[in-house]
Design a protein that fits this description.
- Helices cover 29% and strands 20% of the residues.
- The chain has 5 helices and 8 strands.
- Strands 1, 2, 3, 4, 5, 6, 7 and 8 form an 8-stranded mixed β-sheet that branches.
- The chain starts with a helix and ends with a helix.
- The mean pLDDT is 87.
């Protein structure tokens, strides 16, 4: 089942992101136990889903393998604390600038999920992936004018890599 076509299902588990004062995310260390535990809990809540972690103050951070983005009224927001500022995140920000889509890094509350128009993920192995559900709330995936669709069309031009091919390669591993 292709994540590009069907989207990724996310669940918010009880397991939280490790606070920066304990283990700064930008150090990108190999201790991934909290992400593994969070993904296990998410899969128990809903088979096939991944965890979307919160920080200790209740704001959204990231998944175990991806940066998280929320779209509301055509504006992209991504968490600014407790997350790795990855290359894929930098590319999304650059693409948004090229496409003249407003982009900001800020705290994102769980309550904002209920009014979001779209959600998506970015990571090095797959590029961009749409989010189909968060805690059971569905998001539209096939809108021709969606921010996600505009970004993914520009991704290949900028990187020279097809997101669809990246996803197929990652899913076949």
């Amino acid at each position: 089942r292709s994540s590009l076509l069907h989207g990724v299902r996310l669940r918010i588990p009880d397991v939280r992101q490790i606070p920066d004062d304990c283990f700064p995310v930008e150090h990108k260390v190999r201790n991934r136990l909290h992400w593994w535990l969070a993904d296990q809990q998410a899969a128990k809540l809903e088979p096939g889903s991944k965890a979307l972690l919160l920080d200790h103050t209740g704001f959204i951070t990231e998944t175990s393998t991806s940066c998280f983005y929320l779209v509301h009224d055509g504006k992209i927001s991504t968490p600014d604390r407790g997350v790795l500022r990855s290359l894929s995140s930098e590319i999304v920000e650059e693409l948004a600038s090229v496409l003249q889509i407003p982009f900001c890094r800020r705290q994102i509350s769980v309550e904002e999920l209920s009014t979001a128009d779209e959600a998506f993920l970015s990571s090095t192995p797959v590029g961009l992936l749409p989010v189909s559900h968060i805690d059971g709330r569905p998001f539209q995936l096939s809108q021709s004018d969606s921010v996600f669709k505009r970004l993914i069309e520009k991704w290949e031009t900028l990187t020279g890599v097809s997101p669809a091919q990246q996803i197929l390669n990652a899913e076949s591993r």
